[in-house]
Structure formats: structure tokens, C-alpha cells
Design a protein that fits this description.
This protein is an alpha/beta fold. It folds into four domains: 183 residues, 3-Layer(bba) Sandwich (FAD/NAD(P)-binding domain); 123 residues, FAD/NAD(P)-binding domain (3-Layer(bba) Sandwich), CATH 3.50.50; 114 residues, FAD/NAD(P)-binding domain, CATH 3.50.50.60; 102 residues, Oxidized Rhodanese, domain 1 (3-Layer(aba) Sandwich), CATH 3.40.250. The chain contains 17 helices and 30 strands. The protein has a five-stranded parallel beta sheet. Helix 5 links the parallel strand 10 and strand 11. Helix 1 packs parallel to helix 8. The longest helix is centred in the C-terminal third of the chain and has 16 residues. Its cofactor is FAD. Belongs to the class-III pyridine nucleotide-disulfide oxidoreductase family. InterPro entries: FAD-bd_OxRdtase, FAD/NAD-bd_sf, FAD/NAD-binding_dom, FAD/NAD-linked_Rdtase_dimer_sf, Pyr_nucl-diS_OxRdtase_dimer, Rhodanese-like_dom, Rhodanese-like_dom_sf. Pfam families: Pyr_redox_2 (PF07992), Pyr_redox_dim (PF02852), Rhodanese (PF00581). Keywords: FAD, Flavoprotein, Oxidoreductase, Redox-active center.
């Protein structure tokens, strides 16, 4: 090898191009070669569903920088249509096949960066290889799906999987005028969310005409005589259900992705506990001169400190940049992630950061939870309700995570909460944040402020909260809990918590004698604010009283979810 540093990068989407570009900024002398088996580089994978729907007119809008542009801008040798098939970490060489000619050759390296990304999980089902069954991972996939939809009488679409890509695809194809069914194996859409938040997503899908089958699994694909897809066989969770076949003119399989580990294993690097490549905070593996970045590599959870794997373009860009800096003598380090994400589902923005309630409990925390329902700005200027479910640790008050769903303002709030978690904020700190206010953008006490106030009250014991799930569990276990509805008779007539007593807030002081002060008591209203006022009244009268988190709205959604799961 020459004295000139030679860096070989395998993969040229977010992480690979970021690593190569940053390495070039760190050294004009280094020789940098990027191998990519596809023909597109640095494309926006997250934008692919919007090309299917026509929101993005041409695929070129998602691939603004081709190999020639990148090579000219950075002085980097970018070879698309070239697949790296083997690695010899001892000799520090890679074997490369030119897919256009079939020629195979060997190239050497001083430093090797694996940015091999992920591949879609394709379950081994009968008929899964039928024409008209697609995954959606790269521009080639998107071109094929759109051509299929535009040149055939598709009619009905089946999307398998209700994660980010599945739901964006369902939205876009629905807006094209197609009938869409989404099949999801878990009990609700968006499996990364807690069930009591994901229920809002389920409702939104169904409100826009999407058939959502939860607790269901695909058992096979049926075909026409010419080998094209005809239907999808589905087994639902209902006991004794023999299953049914859904008509399908096209099937999109979006059940998840897995790291492309063939080259990593060939190089002899350690695969971490998450199933991705184990790396240090600069992207080094445990094999000298071999690095891994982006979706193929593990990251670190900012809350737990443990290795984690959440394949997102934002993380891929960061880890690529960090490794490119370190390759040329820099000291950047990757500080970890919260898995912060956001997706649009028709008229809702759905966002998450940090730990959910379930994951917080699994990680050994004692979670305190609030369901805060507030408008993004005053209703007199068109404010619309959003739900923020936030999780904090009871012992330390530390903010652990949040989920937010609503038509507007969700992105702002989840980013504020992600920033707070990143810097170790406690629930009580949220109220003191000096956030921007004008009635065109926010309420005087922002939903983030209210979230902190409610969490702090619950943690301190001044205003305990109980979730719908906890209330039902306690009652199921035989505990006698006194539940008091402090709403108006008009609201109660629409729906109410089962076995609750109705005493409107205005009458509560005078009628408190009708209640048993020796029983644990829960107050509730529609969303939580009036319930909190009732809680304060009874607390000062000596009751052991909690407020129902998120009020009757959250309770009813929880009950619907339970009924659907058990149906």
C-alpha cells in the first residue's frame, strides 16, 4: 500500500456519502473510493411513499445528487453498479463485481467503512415472489410500484405492516383513489407507540377509509394463472377464525428491515446484542481498520446508555459524519439517540422520542405517566387538540420519553421534549422553559408546560395521576375504587367511565358527603383539567384521590382498544 491514506466506503446513501464527504473535508490528500451496487446515491428513502402517491412528481426530486456530481464536488471516486462481495480484513482488501460487465476485481484499503444499510424483511410465505408483490426500500422499488399502479387496473391494495413506511404508503395510495387494507400482526398500528396513543392512529386510518386489520397475519399470496398477484390470505386473531382472502392488485410488504451483515461477518467484526454491528462512539468495530456506520451499526440509547438500533436517516447522517471526521484525525463522537421520529398519517402528525411507558418499565424505571390533551394554539385562532403522553421516572423525576399526536404543532413539541431529555431535564424543568408565545403559534402555557406541571404534580404526590390501564387493572384485581365523574350531565350522557358516580364539579363541595372518604378515589372529566380541579377539592377534604390521566377521552379509547384486541 502507498503512504497515501486510502479509504474505501461500501454503500452510498445517507451514512456512506456523509462519511466520504466529511473525510474529504478532513483531508485533501486521502484517496476515497465509494462502491454502490445500486445506480442511485444519497437518495431520500423516506420520500419514496410520496412518489407513489404523486405528491413527488419525479423520482429525480428524491435523488438530487448523482454520482457524477458527488465525484466532481468532493474529488471522490464513486462507482455505482459495483457490488462488494467479499472482505479480507487481514490483507485489507475487498472483492468487487462490476454488475454491468460481470468483471470481478480486488481493491485494497487502509480504512474500510461499511455503510451497507438494511434490507426489507420478506417473510417466507407461499406466493411471496409473485409479480405485483413489492417492498419499498430504494428508488428502483418505487419506480416499479408506481409503474405497476399506473399501468394496471389495481383497484385494491394490501399493505403488510403498519409502521412508518406502511402507513405513509397506505396514505398515499388511498389519496390516489385506491382501496387500501393494512394488515398488522400486533394489536395496533405504529407498534413503537404505546397502545393508548396508537389508538388515535388506528382511528385516523379508518376515518379515511383504510381497512385496518390488527392482530392479523398474512399466511400466503394467491396468484392469477399468469403469476400476478390476486389476493392475500390473512388469519385474524379471533378464536377459531379460519382466515379469509383479501383481493389485491398490488401488495406492499413493509414488515420491517434488518441490517445487511454479510460483509461485516466476512470481516470478522462483532455483531452486537441488537443484531447490528457493535461499534464505539466513532464508528470503529473491534477489527482494526474496519468501521461501520448508519443503519448497519448499533447506536447508544441516551436514556439507558445501552446499545440500541433504530434505523433512521437522521442517525445515519450523524454517524457517517462522525466516522468521516475520525478517519482523518478528528475527535467527533456520536453521543447517542432517543429514536426521535415523526410521521404523517392523513391529517395527523404522529411523533415519539425516548422511552414509551412499556419500554421504561422494561428498562427498570418506575414510570409516571401523563396524558395531556391541549390545543396547539388558542381555539379562537384555530387551535386543534393534540395528545402528549409523557413518561418520567418516579424516583428521580427525570423525563424519559414522550409521544405526541395531533393535526398541528406536534413537531415543535416533540423536538422541545427531545431536547429536554437529551440534556437530562426533570419533569419539573419543563414548566420553566422560556418558549416562544404568540396566539398564532401557541397558548400562553404551552402544552409542554402543562405536561411538565402534570408530571411534577404526580411525582411529588400533590396531584397523583392514574392511567386508564392502571384503573382497570386495579378494579380487575378486586380493589374497590371510587370513581367520580365531575363533568356536566350533557357530557356524561355521551359516554362515561364504567361504575362511576356523577357529581358535577360545581356541586362537589356540597355533595362530598355522599362519597366514602376511606376509599381510594379517582376523579375524571373529558380531558383532565376539570378532573384535576375536582381532585383538589377532595384532597383538601381528606380524600386519597388521583385524577384520571387524559380523562374520559383517553379512557374510552383505551376500552375500545381492549375490546378490539379481545374480539
Amino acid at each position: 500500500m502507498s503512504d497515501r491514506l486510502k479509504i474505501v466506503v461500501v454503500g452510498s446513501v445517507a451514512a456512506g456519502t456523509s462519511a466520504a464527504a466529511k473525510a474529504r473535508r478532513g483531508s485533501e490528500e486521502a484517496e476515497i473510493v465509494v462502491y454502490e451496487r445500486d445506480l442511485d446515491i444519497s437518495y431520500s428513502g423516506c420520500g419514496l411513499p410520496y412518489y407513489l402517491g404523486g405528491t413527488v412528481e419525479t423520482i429525480d426530486e428524491l435523488t438530487p445528487r448523482d454520482a457524477a456530481w458527488f465525484a466532481k464536488r468532493y474529488g471522490i471516486d464513486v462507482r455505482t453498479g459495483h457490488e462488494v462481495t467479499a472482505v479480507d480484513a487481514t490483507a485489507r482488501t475487498v472483492t468487487v463485481r462490476d454488475l454491468a460487465t460481470g468483471e470481478t476485481f480486488t481493491d485494497d484499503y487502509d480504512e474500510l467503512v461499511l455503510a451497507t444499510g438494511v434490507s426489507p424483511v420478506v417473510p417466507p410465505l407461499p406466493g411471496i415472489d409473485a409479480d405485483g408483490v413489492f417492498t419499498l426500500r430504494n428508488p428502483s422499488d418505487a419506480r416499479a410500484v408506481r409503474q405497476w399502479v399506473e399501468t394496471r387496473e389495481v383497484g385494491h391494495v394490501v399493505v403488510v405492516g403498519a409502521g412508518y413506511i406502511g402507513l405513509e404508503t397506505a396514505e398515499q395510495l388511498t389519496e390516489r383513489g385506491l382501496d387500501v387494507t393494512v394488515v398488522e400482526m400486533t394489536g395496533h398500528a405504529m407498534p413503537r407507540l404505546d397502545a393508548d396513543v396508537a389508538g388515535l392512529v388506528d382511528d385516523e386510518l379508518r376515518a379515511h377509509g383504510v381497512e385496518l386489520l390488527t392482530g392479523a397475519r398474512v399466511t400466503g399470496i394467491t396468484t392469477h394463472d399468469d403469476g400476478t398477484v390476486r389476493g392475500v390470505q390473512v388469519a385474524e386473531a379471533t378464536a377459531g377464525d379460519a382466515g379469509r382472502t383479501l383481493d389485491a392488485g398490488v401488495v406492499i410488504v413493509a414488515v420491517g428491515v434488518r441490517p445487511n451483515l454479510d460483509l461485516a461477518r466476512a470481516a470478522g467484526v462483532t455483531i452486537g446484542t441488537t443484531g447490528a454491528v457493535a461499534v464505539d462512539r466513532q464508528g470503529r468495530t473491534d477489527v482494526d481498520h474496519v468501521w461501520a456506520v448508519g443503519d448497519v451499526a448499533e447506536s447508544f440509547d441516551l436514556v439507558t446508555g445501552e446499545p440500541t438500533w433504530v434505523p433512521l436517516g437522521s442517525t445515519a447522517n450523524k454517524t457517517g459524519r462522525v466516522a468521516g471526521d475520525a478517519l482523518t484525525g478528528g475527535d467527533l463522537e456520536h453521543r447517542g439517540i432517543l429514536g426521535t421520529s415523526i410521521v404523517r398519517v392523513f391529517d395527523l402528525a404522529v411523533a415519539q422520542t425516548g422511552l414509551t411507558e412499556d419500554r421504561a418499565r422494561e428498562a427498570g424505571f418506575d414510570p409516571v405517566v401523563v396524558h395531556n390533551i391541549k390545543p396547539d394554539r388558542p381555539t379562537y385562532l384555530g387551535g386543534q387538540e393534540m395528545l402528549i403522553k409523557a413518561v418520567a421516572d418516579r424516583g428521580t423525576g427525570r423525563l424519559l420519553g414522550a409521544q405526541a399526536v395531533g393535526p398541528a404543532g406536534v413537531d415543535k413539541r416533540i423536538d422541545v421534549l427531545a431536547t429536554a431529555i437529551t440534556f437530562g431535564a426533570k419533569a419539573e424543568d419543563l414548566f420553566h422553559l422560556d418558549l416562544a408565545y404568540a396566539p398564532t403559534y401557541a397558548t400562553t402555557k404551552d402544552p409542554v408546560h402543562y405536561t411538565g406541571m402534570a408530571l411534577d404534580g404526580a411525582i411529588s404526590g400533590r396531584a397523583p395521576l392514574v392511567s386508564a390501564a392502571e384503573l382497570e387493572l386495579r378494579r380487575h384485581d378486586g380493589e374497590k375504587v371510587q370513581v367520580v365523574d365531575v363533568r356536566s350531565a350533557k357530557d356524561r350522557a355521551k359516554s362515561a367511565v364504567e361504575d362511576s358516580v356523577h357529581i358535577p364539579l360545581a356541586e362537589l363541595r356540597a355533595r362530598a358527603g355522599e362519597l366514602d372518604p376511606t376509599l381510594p378515589t379517582v376523579t375524571y372529566c373529558n380531558k383532565g383539567v376539570t378532573g384535576n380541579a375536582g381532585q383538589n377539592v377532595l384532597r383538601h377534604l381528606g380524600f386519597d384521590v388521583a385524577n384520571l390521566s387524559g380523562g374520559n377521552k383517553t379512557y374510552q379509547r383505551y376500552r375500545r382498544g381492549q375490546e378490539e384486541t379481545s374480539a
